[in-house]
Specification:
Elements (H helix, E strand, L loop, with lengths): L1 H7 L3 H11 L16 E5 L2 E4 H14 L9 H27 L5 H9 L5 E2 L2 E2 L1 H10 L4 H22 L6 H11 L2 E9 L1 H4 L7 H10 L5 E2 L2 E10 H6 L5 H10 L5 E2 L2 E9 L5 H13 L4 H8 L11 E5 L8 H5 L7 E7 L2 E11 L2 E2 L2 H34 L3 H8 L4 E7 L10 H7 L2 H4 L8 E4 L2 E11 L2 E2 L2 H33 L4 H7 L3 E2 L3 E4 L7 H9 L9 E6 L5 E10 L8 H30 L2 E3 L1 H5 L6
Helix pairs in contact: 7-23, 10-20, 12-16, 16-17, 20-21
Amino acid sequence: MLQNMRENFTGKFALALLVLIGFSFVFFGLNYSFIGASYAARVDGEEILAGAFEQNYRNALQANPQLSLYEGPLRVEVRRILLDQMIQGQLLQNFLNDSGYRISDEQLMSNIQETPEFQVNGRFDMDVYRTYLAQRNYTPDRFEPEHRNTLRQQQLELSVAATAIVTPAEYRRYLNLVAQQRVVSVATIDQAAVDEDVIVADDEIETYYADNQANFMEQASADVEYIRVSRREVAEGIDPSEEDLIAWYDDNQDRYLQDEQRRARHILIVSGDDAEARAQDALERVQAGEAFETVAAEVSEDSGSAPQGGDLGSLTEEQYLEGIGEAIFDMQEGEIRGPIQSAFGYHVVRLDEIFEQGILPFEQARGDILSDVRSQAAVDIYRQLERDLSNALFDMSNLQEVAAATGQTVETTEGFTRQGGEPFGANQAAIDAIFDEIVLTGGQMSEVTELDADSMAIFRVAQFYPESVRPLADVRDEIENNLRAARAQTIMENRAEAALAAVADGEDFGVAAEASGLTVTEPQLWTRGDQTVDSSLMFEVFAAVKPEQGAPVTGRARTMDGSVAIYSLEAVLPGRPESIPLAQRDAGKLALAQDSGINDFGAFIRSLYDGADIEVNEDLLAADDLFQ
């Protein structure tokens, strides 16, 4: 059985999982920075750390919660597919390093500047770039090396794809097939044409209902009362005094240390062969007495900072661009320098203020202090609430009394099923607590249930609705429609077969079709891929064998709208490549070569696998998540 399961993973299911998992790593790739305790795999001596694997598995679960539904052998296979992606990444990394693939600073920065996520109105925006990275817990120093490696991989993919060759003879044969035309006559019949012949009696509906009740089940559900406590909400309700904040700050100053920061302004000239000269002009205007802010607003090409007079804010040296940070941290307050070249262009810089390394002033750290004081106080309050709720459960007979004794509120939700429901979603802890038999049907309150690290709840089922069959009155129309559709389909297919049988006996296609109640169209010339033709019928016609002279090929198809069609294929006309516009032929050849290149790159990856020494830690694949 397990072998069959593994074979099935090579098909659509594996592809679906790869798509789900792959979404977790779009743009930034895999994060190998987590320090693990052991290895998940060894690839030619290079280790993929267990911690990196578990972190990426956890990221995949967070991005795609449906992956968490797989258990046992299926869970192991999900983890194996994820690890296989990481092994593939390591194989490519090894090859790129060994083969000397390089991305220059100019190539890297050009690619970043052309990335739409970093642009405003089609132009690169430094502020947008920094904000985008910060929102994803990245700094330029961390992102740019990783993105450089992504570009190296793309370089490899392109170089492999470039070796794909489509010969003129091969392409002509392809065009002959793609541009092939077929002369076909078609006759169709739909449900409306046979509707008056379809009779569904009441006893048939009742019999179908009795024989197929499993199709009409209403799943078990419950109306639930609950008390829910959230650590975050507890923290938000804490209002410490100013004295509490100051006392915390005095006792925990090591939490609020900062590296030296410097506040600077800049004028950035990004584009053009004369960028350096224009930056020099800007510098001279400032040196001549014009306000730096005015010049920045007028000529700076950093649209994020220019409206603020070029203000870059207060940053550490590593947060500045390479080249700019070094200059700013070598300047005196009020000093102006330029032009300074970076990967993004030429800068004129003024240093406005220096914040020495050390403890942040209280006012600057106040927001963090307030959050820390609340979080610390919430830990004790939250745990005390947990104890109070547990004690109240022991002493009280209903949820309202528990709420009153602990200062909480009773809330309700309806229609909660074994698949979950609002407001808990598919939280398994909530589902297990609610559908515990003594809670579900015994009228008892649940224990204090930890929903996650920051919230807990107590549940009581106010009303339980067992699984039941929907009443016949509610599903009668559905059953009748289904029976009518099935019976109509049989009638349509029988009429279509009768028409085809008559054609086989020598009767004219149109005459035979009309005699069976089908609607006949004039002979048509179809081209493969014509979007105006039903795709199911198109497939059958172009899959049919070429007719002999005077002996049409006939067949039947069910169309996408549920109708039934018969066809008579009269002739096949080979495609004429010369009739296709040259630009279209060239684009088609390029697309065919690209498809071939994709297949070649897949074969290249397989060759790396075949030639590599790969050791997988099977125990880790079968183990529980290290973070749990």
